[in-house]
Amino acid sequence: MSVDGKISTYERVQVRISGDEDFRRVDELKCNVDAIMVGVGTILADDPSLTVKSGRCKNPVRVVADSRARTPLDAQILHKGEGKRVILVSENAPLERINALSEYAEIIIAGSTRVDLRAGLRELKRQGIDRVMVEGGGTLNWSLIKEGLVDEIHTYIGGVVIGGRNAPTLVDGDGFSKNEGFPIFDLIDVRRIGDGVLLRWRAKKV
Does residue 205 carry a pLDDT above 80? Predict the structure, then answer.
């Protein structure tokens, strides 16, 4: 994210914030997880493939949280690179969209009107997927944190300022109120990478 906590511009287009050294770090992370997850908003905005760019290891299982099965049939994630794809949808997703996407990915129905992330992750766990890396946008990140489903947060802060009241941040959603309390994360590591800094946080167990 940027110095001011943004992950994109108000136009919600992909922005390069970190350098090659950080990209290599992210590739290494992908090689040490069972799956990588994004929300459909990221698919629609950036069309990522979520592949391991270096080719150092097999692609992890690629997972999309997509309540209404809006993932385009020509999305890179469905076609680029080898490996399993999974799309989490809700019972509210149109059947014709589910059938079309099932040609390219395993469909897991979890939740009635929106994806039940806890149920979806439980099914992934049943399939042997224990370690999930999330490269989602602010909405998916918010939902996972709200549900208490995040163990660690890794934030790379690059030396740019993006600004914009409508620009997405690392965690968007409804936000927590002062009365309900805030999730607490302990700082476990700080490291300079290129022109930025990597912070690693671990969820505080209560």
Answer: no
